[in-house]
Design brief:
The chain has 320 residues and is α/β, with parallel strands linked by helices. It has a single domain, classed as Inosine-uridine Nucleoside N-ribohydrolase, Chain A, CATH 3.90.245. It has 14 helices and ten strands. The strands form two sheets. Strands 3-2-1-4-5-6-10-7 form an eight-stranded mixed β-sheet, with helices on both faces. It is globular. The chain starts with a helix and ends in a 7-residue tail after the last helix. The N terminus is likely disordered.
């Protein structure tokens, strides 16, 4: 791109050569269970930093959805994006620790949030066939949407979701490759919801454990934590609360939820393959025979995805 900017463009006999028109921003709604694991915060920050995504709103799903609203609002304030509305999904039981509860409790905006299901319905009615729902949580909100307003789901452009495990399971000790598929958390929490989504007819892009177990290494963490912006400081505080309170004893974040966001911005970062997926009651997602019902990414460009995160949260600038 730089070479194109520095070199003269050819001019045709009929007039000036025209640059390709800029692509219109992709309208998206982010559905998140931010506050348990740390990857949601990275995914939200990455999406909100890129003008190629038009973030229409953020909906909180699964568990204590009210406290998730507070966390997301505080993060939006740190990112300078208080223009983005936050809607609250139905609360559910949740055995996973809410590791970032203390940070969420210091949100300045504690007003009531609109209902997430009606928020999605209204958005789709205004822009039928255009909106991508980025599902980064157990599908409790999608399940409720399918029950209340099934036509709304079919009115989405697509659902882009982190979930499932096709040929690879959770890495052993979070680092060693595991060729045995797992019942992945988001799907296992609501397997019937994924089954219903696949039956709905809406296009589904699936980003399973095979492609999403990207580690945010210590070198990048140190650079981000020392960067000194409001956004990087917020992620730093959220990271340290997650590190202290997560039940898995983890130090290095796994950026599961960043991958579907990165794919929307650059499809080459995680090429997709048509598959037909079956979902069992335990949440296992297996390839079965038949007409494909998802496009799934089974391998990602980790370097490109990590570079996108750093560009969003700690873009290059002169050293102090």
């Amino acid at each position: 791109m730089l070479a194109l900017l520095l070199c003269p463009l050819p001019w045709g006999a009929a007039g000036a050569a025209h640059a390709a028109p800029a692509r219109a921003p992709i309208p998206v709604i982010l559905d998140t269970d931010a506050g348990d694991d740390i990857d949601d915060a990275f995914a939200l920050a990455t999406a909100l930093a890129d003008p190629r995504l038009e973030v229409l709103g953020i909906t909180t799903a699964w568990g204590d959805t009210r406290t998730r609203v507070l966390l997301v609002r505080r993060l939006l304030a740190a990112l300078g994006r208080t223009d983005v509305p936050v809607a609250q999904g139905p609360a559910t039981a949740n055995a996973t620790p809410f590791t970032q509860r203390q940070w969420a409790g210091r949100a300045s905006d504690t007003s009531a949030a609109p209902d997430a299901i009606e928020f999605i319905r209204n958005a789709v009615e205004r822009r039928p066939g255009q909106i991508t729902l980025i599902a980064l949580a157990p599908l409790s909100n999608l399940e409720a949407l399918l029950q209340r307003h099934p036509d709304t789901v079919r009115g989405l452009h697509q659902v882009v979701m982190m979930g499932g495990s096709i040929h690879a399971g959770y890495r052993l000790g979070s680092a060693i490759a595991n060729p045995v598929p797992s019942a992945e958390y988001n799907v296992a929490a609501r397997p019937q919801a994924l089954a219903a989504l696949l039956d709905s007819g809406v296009a589904v892009k699936l980003f399973p454990l095979d492609s999403t177990q990207i580690k945010f290494d210590e070198v990048r963490r140190d650079h981000l934590f020392a960067y000194g912006s409001a956004a990087s400081d917020a992620i730093t505080e959220l990271y340290h609360q997650w590190r202290l309170w997560n039940a898995w004893g983890q130090i290095t974040p796994t950026l599961f939820d960043v991958v579907p966001v990165a794919w929307l911005l650059d499809a080459d970062s995680c090429p997709v393959t048509p598959l037909r997926i079956g979902v069992d009651a335990a949440g296992f997602t297996r390839v079965v025979e038949g007409v494909p019902n998802v496009d799934a990414c089974l391998a990602s460009d980790e370097g490109a995805i990590l570079a996108r995160v750093m560009s969003a949260l700690a873009p290059p600038r002169p050293m102090p």
